[in-house]
RNA sequence: GGGCGAUUAGUUCAAUGGUAGAACGCUGCAUUCACAUUGCAGAGGCACAAGUUCGAUUCUUGUAUCGCCCACCA
């Protein structure tokens, strides 16, 4: 079988990953070792051969999938891969997260579990639509020129062409995911899952349509959830404006055209006697009448203590208006321009209107003061455009009960966060939950399954179903039965509430069972200075370049080497050097052992009778190391596990024992060398899979399989 | 504003209620017999203050600095 042969080139002096990695990956993938249905079972008793592995030594695979199911008693282990965006390319955060998953998956596979790492990609609504729109723009075409149907065709075309980029990159990293099960959050079965989920909520009356003030991105022309809004500091101006007998402050004078009331704190001695009165107020649009309402949320200390109420353009004011039955005047439209209600300002952009209105206020002698003011502005997380809070009709999902079940599942220990601290982020969000705006006014996404609605669902609505939808739900598939609930999920802390929380309540709602037992929140890779890596700031490091230059093993080594107890990694290029050197050490130690044991009758298993105390020492030390490393991986302490292995292999095995054996030349030392080396390669394999597999192929081990499927 | 975490060698990080370790870097020596991507040796460090303790880098409290998350003040 093509690619099923270990590389038979000689072990040249310097280790060069480039010569090997691609070949090795094919050797794993083609026989189906990533696929739990095609894993060989049990030990093969046939061979007594020693010496380097030959392809003949590979025994035929016995299937453990559907065919052997009845008799299979092996336990399963499943991770559903956090599906990267189809628009994505691998960044350091991915590289770390996926390496961690791969370590666990390889470890469990070697421990004899039916192991599935289920991969997929996410359609990433707004992100993907933006990418394709940008492409079209180069040709001078907008999506509106094309129309919805044609535009969607273009997006699919784009997806077919570029959507696998990140998958190819994951393979370079060594990810042992079962690509034969690859899913996409908009593939046929997944559409069915989303529809089923929507219908379920709808029938429960948890999905409703309503008019609310939502976050609106004028550029993307869509609503956004609170979690999709980011804040930026901006130097603005603070205006104080005469409001009849009162003075109110604002940074956005243009929204005052939509004011329908004034709010004061009922405790405020200055104003409380005004509550309930209707004031005659001179505005830039002439005289207006405005009611004064009392609300304890008004901060007496802030500004003048009197607050204008703009129900159509502020979420809090909206609530106030609901409570007090106030009129809602929409003066800014979805295009970011003033509406007809703004009268003479209609058609102006927000910015233009502000300038004009301030000038008019001055003319009318209504502007009391203006001064520089530093504040936070809300911007779109995708395109950085300033968010306009707008009154808009959207679909919402009621969160109260879902939040409760999600909260309970973590409180009662069904689902564990690692590190546990992050559960706090989760509880805080759930405790202050608001209904989820699930509709988006873009074209690329899951259509809301109701007649006559052109909106699509928030991307996260579909991702929320991932752990079971990717296993086949709503169909009752064997995979679903076999692998759900999954064991572990790994991702960055940035999406705890965007994604993890929503998977948890979705799993509990649709499967009556948690989606995973352990949630590993991995470190964030920062720059050496401790700043966020960001493409736009040019502070990012491309893991593919590292793989190209140092090899996947050294890159994985460097990532894990720096993953210690703390949460952030300040990326150090030096750990790559350490990794590269370590690879070389392993390579050469193996060459040495082969020189000592090649063409001989050394047996891996004969060493237990050894009488030589030096041998005992190294063997005992190895056994302890093995036990500790196993425990560390089980408790997700990957960095310490790797440090321990490094220390043992380099300083105990190479520096001490290997040097000693140069003076001796008997069978016991040869066997001991083999015992410790082969054992070490196994322990190292999950971390640095390529080099260990190559070297494994060279060692005289009886009944040898590929290392990836050897027993731990 | 609220929360979480960090502060240890030149740098990035460990460990620890009683001699503080690693990697990379640095200095010296050695070796070409697995590896110069080497070996051996060496220099070099617990943010500050108070408390608990026989004893604190470790526990408690406070201060300072830094980072991250959440909220968002009209």
Structural write-up:
- By secondary structure, the chain is of the alpha/beta class.
- It has 3 domains: 31-199 and 453-522, HUPs (Rossmann fold), CATH 3.40.50; 223-388, Isoleucyl-tRNA Synthetase, domain 2; 547-709, Isoleucyl-tRNA Synthetase, Domain 1, CATH 1.10.730.
- It is built from 22 helices and 22 strands.
- The strands form 8 sheets. A 4-stranded antiparallel sheet has the order 6-5-14-16. Strands 10-11-9-12 form a 4-stranded mixed sheet. A 3-stranded antiparallel sheet has the order 8-7-13, covered by helices on one side.
- β5 (207-217) and β6 (222-224) form a beta hairpin.
- α10 packs antiparallel against α11 (422-431), α19 (613-634) runs antiparallel to α20 (638-661) and α19 runs parallel beside α21.
- The radius of gyration is 31 Å and the shape is elongated.
- Mean pLDDT is 86; it is low at 1-9, 42-72 and 606-611.
- The protein binds one RNA strand of 74 nucleotides through β8, β12, β13, α11 and β22.
